[in-house]
Amino acid sequence: MKFKPLKDRLLVKYSDEPEKSSGGIYIPDSAKEKPQKGEVIAAGPGRITDDGKLQKMEIKVGDVVLFEKYSGSKINIENEEYLIIKEDDILGIIEK
Predict the structure, then answer these.
(1) Residue 73 resides in a domain
(2) What are the φ/ψ torsions at residue 87 (nearest 5 degrees)?
(3) N or C: which end of the chain has fewer CB within 10 A?
(4) For position 51, which CATH number holds?
(5) pLDDT-derived band of residue 96, with 50, 70 and 90 as boundaries?
(6) Is residue 81 within 8 Å of residue 39, measured between CB atoms?
(7) pTM
């Protein structure tokens, strides 16, 4: 897959959620809520500041991030669901 986000946008792949609840009940895909956690697959170069300088991204490819619940735009690439979000919508990086 070749996809390059522009400016301060990120391509994030949702993290996999367990197929059943803690009580052992299987949850169908239609009832699942999308996670607010994912891995950064691609990142843009950064945003242009008011004075015309490039402010580089703090987030890099491979980071696992938490993001706001209703942020970004969902897209499908090669039958995989991704999210395109702005760097400002990232709440934090999960360190391993």
Answers:
(1) yes
(2) -60, -30
(3) C
(4) 2.30.33.40
(5) confident
(6) no
(7) 0.77
pLDDT digits (tens, 9 = 90+) for 43-78: 999 999 999 999 999 999 999 999 988 888 999 888
3 assigned to some structural domain: no
Number of domains within the chain = 1
Query: Identity (one letter) of the amino acid at 50?
Result: D
Residues near 31 by beta carbon (within 8 Å), at least 6 away in sequence: none
d(CA 43, CA 60): 7
Determine, yes or no, domain membership for 23: no
The confidence score (pLDDT) of residue 35 equals 62
Print the domain residue range for 80.
Answer: 9-13+28-94
* Cα–Cα distance measured from residue 92 to residue 77, given in angstroms and rounded to the nearest whole number: 25
